[in-house]
UniProtKB/TrEMBL annotation:
Belongs to the 1-acyl-sn-glycerol-3-phosphate acyltransferase family. PANTHER family: LYSOPHOSPHATIDYLCHOLINE ACYLTRANSFERASE, PHOSPHOLIPID ACYLTRANSFERASE. The keyword Coiled coil does not apply. Keywords: Acyltransferase, Lipid biosynthesis, Lipid metabolism, Membrane, Phospholipid biosynthesis, Phospholipid metabolism, Transferase, Transmembrane, Transmembrane helix. It holds the Pfam family Acyltransferase. Residues 158-268 form the Phospholipid/glycerol acyltransferase domain. GO terms for biological process: phospholipid biosynthetic process. The lineage of its organism: Eukaryota, Metamonada, Carpediemonas-like organisms, Kipferlia. This is Phospholipid/glycerol acyltransferase domain-containing protein. CDD domains: LPLAT_LPCAT1-like. The chain crosses the membrane at residues 73-96. It is found in: Membrane.
Length: 377
């Protein structure tokens, strides 16, 4: 059943929520006029309800026996400090290398010539070293990034699912050539990653600003058509999911109507879910660094050439590419993955419920409002 139908079915049983007011007395009167009871701050849902309305957003952190969890924590007391030290050393060397390479180069321009060749080698080597620091000793790769179809054609943009902050490292380590990423604007000023992102001419976007999103889409289009620049990587879900589904794709990468290369990243696990979903960054980092061995698989699919109908309709292009990625996921990895009707905006509503900002009634009300607004666009 379609996700929106799931949501409506659960929400129908809930009282109709009047428009909220900043005045508590006015809000209480609005509720009384509907003949219903305003839910209190303790209004909660069962796990079954959460999974039905928000599939793919509530990944269990662990299914391991207690004894194994205790052993993992004990190992973590040794592995985590050691790996943090190694991680800091590698990132420091990377930062120093980039700083040297950009001496005498204009601040916001991409590197070219010998500088580019050096940053390519440094970025790939550093990415692999950082994955080793995180316990990813072997990486399974199938397929390869596409080359130019002709000497004058553009390098197809990579479109990948997104599960963890380690995804860019896996792509850089297993691909060939350097990549510029479509990244959030806050990353531009980051001490290490910001320097690297600017060096490879990354595209930055403020997701809260309509003007910034439009400018990023235009910059992305120029990058996709410029044969002299590096390949761009886009995570169209605009955030991480738990690996059981693909969230709705944002349309920016699909508006130019150019060929794209889908990429699949999966973190096989038995006990400890490595996706960064419904947990804090510190919990996620400890979960990864305390594991003696982690696994990651990356699959580069063939280039997807849009039909004339898809070129004219970015939404159709995004939906069909997402379906193609799900089908390839099932074929390559032998496990199911769903096409969720949720967007990242709707997932963040659920995360606020999990953080205690909203109660369940308010969470459903905001979800319904968001889906109505999205359906009307």
């Amino acid at each position: 059943m379609h996700m929106l139908e799931h949501t409506n079915r659960v929400a129908v049983a809930k009282p109709k929520h009047p428009k909220q007011s900043d005045n508590d007395e006015e809000t209480a009167n609005l509720w009384s006029e509907t003949g219903t009871t305003q839910p209190g701050p303790q209004s909660r849902a069962t796990v079954a309800e959460e999974l039905e309305v928000f599939p793919g957003c509530r990944a269990p952190l662990t299914t391991a026996p207690l004894a194994l969890t205790v052993l993992k924590v004990l190992l973590g007391t040794v592995l985590v400090p050691l790996r943090i030290v190694l991680f800091v050393c590698v990132t420091t060397l990377f930062w120093l290398s980039v700083k040297v390479l950009v001496i005498g180069h204009k601040k916001d321009g991409a590197l070219r010539g010998w500088r580019w060749a050096c940053i390519d080698a440094v970025a790939r080597t550093t990415s692999r070293a950082l994955l080793l620091c995180c316990g990813y000793h072997w990486i399974h790769r199938s397929g390869r990034p596409a080359d130019r179809e002709t000497p004058t054609s553009h390098l197809p943009t990579l479109v990948s699912n997104h599960q963890s902050w380690t995804d860019p490292f896996a792509i850089m380590a297993m691909g060939h050539g350097c990549y510029g990423f479509l990244a959030m604007a806050e990353l531009r000023k980051a001490p290490v990653l910001g320097v690297a992102a600017r060096a490879v001419d990354g595209v930055f976007v403020d997701r809260t600003s309509e003007a910034s999103r439009a400018a990023a889409a235009e910059a992305l289009k120029r990058r996709m058509q410029d044969t002299s620049q590096s390949r761009v990587v886009v995570f169209p879900e605009a955030g991480t999911s738990d690996g059981s589904c693909l969230l709705q794709f944002r349309k920016g990468a699909f508006r130019p109507g150019l060929p794209l290369q889908p990429c699949l990243i999966r973190y096989p696990h038995r006990w400890y879910n490595q996706s960064w979903d419904s947990q804090s960054i510190w919990s996620h980092v400890f979960n990864i660094l305390s594991s003696p061995h982690n696994r990651v698989s990356i699959t580069f699919m063939p280039v997807y050439h849009p039909s004339p109908a898809e070129q004219a309709d970015p939404a159709l292009y995004a939906d069909n590419l997402r379906k193609s990625m799900c089908e390839e996921w099932r074929r390559v990895y032998g496990c199911d993955i769903r096409e969720s009707s949720l967007s990242m905006t709707e997932k963040r509503i659920y995360q606020k419920y999990r953080d205690g900002v909203y109660d369940w009634g308010e969470c459903l009300r905001r979800l319904e409002t968001q889906q109505v607004e999205r359906g009307g666009k």
